[in-house]
Specification:
Length: about 450
């Protein structure tokens, strides 16, 4: 019952906010970049909400529960740093291409290459599909447990909700609803964490749980801590630091916010974002310290809320979950729509791409045996393949189109398969090698093939 109520109220809220506070977009400029007039606070709230996805809500709690301080540290810190590191590059692309809309469009203009353009379109569009799939997977998994409705039905319902308001005014709808979603998420954190800590055993459970449910993860750099670093921390850090650079959601916001507010928006967004996974991590610590045995460690915060609090608390928790997941989903819809602008596509093409994205994402979410954490690591590595060519180009390094294409291809065909094999087999060594290859090969090939400066006699 709670799940159905939340979905119904949430849908009404988001549609009402969109219709009341924005006008239906009639031009692609308005639909894709909000006429480049977004302010600081709404942009920061949108950046934070977009970055709060399934892993931020559940992986943070899972890693705190299973791997204690090392687990949460290697998830939380790179998640925050990546937005801060991205900020100056956001300002660079806006200065170099003031009327831009997409990263792929910027790279196509720089290199005048169909191959480079295609490589970026492949990475950016594939990412939106995989990212949306994992949001639907996580949301439907919880809601199916609560409502008893079939899992696949809920993936379709969540997809339809995200489309219902996103198609109205594009990025403006996404940003407005992101702000409301962020308020809901912060409000839920402000309710749950203090309440959990002020129980009779709350603080002692937190302290006991800092080393995880097994009690073996006390330090970042002892043998157990290093194992967490190699198997999870390193690939996660690389994937997360690279994440905004390979995600059109963030480039789209860079082109949409007022030019003088870009840096501040991303830094404030990083601070607002940090509150949510840190709060979920605290719940994971409390679950571990109390000795709670999770049925599914990937949903330990959800299970703790069910067992620790009165039943009505499930309402705000579900609002937080749906807000976090669909804020990323609707941002992905706007991102895929913006990519159609590379070909001069109009409103029909933009909205058609949204529908196609959702069909593919629903299919991915319904693949048997797929987990949120595994998919998160896989597409996090995908994003890393374009990071160094993008950074080098924005910094003014002279590269060749053939080198950029060859570098990205090398990262995709060598780094990605090694990482996937490592993930499937549980090999920390292969995961680390695959992740490093994914991020480094593209940059190495770009630099090796870069034009040599003539040496003066």
């Amino acid at each position: 019952m709670y799940g159905i109520i939340v979905l119904a109220v949430y849908t009404i809220l988001m549609i009402a906010v969109t219709i009341c506070l924005s006008r239906k977009s009639r031009s692609t400029e308005s639909f894709h970049v909000a006429d480049r007039k977004l302010g600081l606070f709404q942009s920061a709230m949108s950046i934070a909400a977009t970055w709060i996805w399934a892993p931020a809500l559940f992986t943070s709690a899972e890693k705190a529960y299973t791997n204690g301080i090392p687990g949460l540290f290697w998830f939380l810190v790179p998640n925050i740093l990546c937005l801060v590191i991205f900020a100056p590059f956001g300002k660079k692309i806006r200065a170099q291409m003031p009327e831009g809309i997409t990263l792929s469009g910027y790279m196509a203009e720089k290199y005048q290459s169909v191959a480079v353009h295609g490589a970026y379109l492949f990475e950016l569009s594939t990412l939106t599909v995989l990212s949306t799939g994992v949001q639907l997977l996580a949301g439907a998994k919880i809601l199916s447990t609560i409502t008893g409705l079939p899992f696949w039905v809920l993936t379709v319902i969540l997809a339809a909700i995200a489309f219902s308001y996103s198609q109205y005014s594009g990025i403006k709808a996404s940003v407005l609803t992101d702000a409301l979603q962020m308020i809901l998420m912060l409000g839920c954190c402000a309710l749950l964490v203090p309440w959990a800590l002020t129980r009779n055993t709350g603080m002692s459970d937190l302290v006991s749980g800092l080393s995880g449910i097994s009690g073996d993860y006390r330090h970042l750099f002892d043998s157990n801590g290093m194992n967490v670093f190699l198997s999870f921390g390193l690939p996660t850090a690389i994937g997360l630091i690279a994440a905004p650079f390979g995600d059109q959601c963030f480039w789209q916001r860079t082109f949409s916010v007022r030019k003088d507010k870009i840096g501040k928006a991303f830094k404030l967004g990083a601070i607002l974002f940090a509150v949510v996974p840190l709060s979920m991590g605290i719940l994971g610590f409390i679950a571990a310290g109390s000795g709670y045995v999770a049925h599914d460690s990937g949903l330990v915060n959800f299970e703790l809320v069910c067992n620790l609090f009165p039943s009505w608390v499930m309402l705000p928790f579900l609002f937080m979950v749906v807000s976090g997941l669909l804020s990323t989903a609707d941002s992905n819809l706007c991102a895929i729509a913006s990519l159609t602008s590379d070909f001069g596509g109009g409103m029909k093409a933009a909205k058609g791409s949204m529908l196609l994205l959702l069909v593919l994402a629903v299919g991915i979410a319904n693949i048997p045996g797929l987990t949120v954490t595994d998919l998160f690591l896989i597409y996090g590595t995908l994003r890393a393949t374009t990071m160094l060519p993008t950074v080098l180009t924005l910094r003014g390094k002279s590269l060749t189109a053939k080198g950029v294409f060859a570098g990205i291809t090398a990262s995709l065909v060598i780094g990605m398969p090694i990482f996937v094999i490592g993930t499937v087999t549980g090999s920390a060594v292969l995961k680390t090698i695959g992740c490093l290859c994914a991020v480094l090969l593209s940059g190495i090939v770009c630099l090796v093939t870069a034009p040599r400066k003539a040496v003066k006699a």
